Task: inverse folding
């Protein structure tokens, strides 16, 4: 399985292959995962507002 570099733009060459199945990126589609993602956002925000390093910085 692969996530496309320029998602959601799929490289056209994939459409020509008979041995490939293309699916949307759905790894975070469960309620539990989405809830955890929201909690992490809130935690990062609170850390930042307290002047502390966030858990998941974007570089």
Result:
């Amino acid at each position: 399985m692969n996530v496309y570099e320029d998602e959601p733009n799929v490289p056209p060459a994939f459409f020509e292959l008979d041995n490939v199945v293309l699916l949307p990126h759905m790894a975070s589609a469960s309620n539990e995962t989405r809830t955890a993602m929201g909690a992490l956002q809130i935690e990062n925000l609170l850390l930042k507002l307290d002047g502390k390093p966030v858990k998941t910085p974007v570089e």
